[in-house]
Amino acid sequence: MGIFMILFTLIGGITLSAQSSINGTFSRKAGTIETTFLTFLTGTMFLTIFILFFGGGNVLALFDVPKCQLSAALLGTMYLLLTVMAVPRIGVIATNIAGIAGQLVIGVVIDHFGWFNSLVIEFDTKRIFALLFMILSLYFIYKGNKRSKEILNTQ
């Protein structure tokens, strides 16, 4: 089952990068906030249909959860909005690596302290090196993007 979850997450990452690229281009014409709104509106319509035919949960349970857990919706919206803003300026790969680096940094903190009822996984040398390599890769990708942009602007 674990290999399927990795495969599904890999496919999710592929769709996220494609979405970032498309939304970044679309936002140049429609606007950043408008593009983000359209994405969530389309997602809402799709998920409403999906829930009607395949849903087995309890949508009304959202009234019973601690209110701080509803902040996840705002955090997802902020992620998409910031991604739509970044892609046209720094490119898809730099945007996605920056997003992943941010996820890893906060993930290590969440794991270390066991926030949000997560497993407690101590911060160790391997995690430090993983974060450093991710930040180093972001640096090289961003610098490569800037260099490519400068070359294009001089031609």
From TrEMBL:
InterPro entries: YdcZ. Signal peptide: none annotated. One of its GO terms (cellular component) is plasma membrane. It comes from the Bacteria. Keywords: Membrane, Transmembrane, Transmembrane helix. The keyword Membrane applies. The chain crosses the membrane at residues 36-63, 70-87, 93-116, 128-145. This is DMT family transporter.
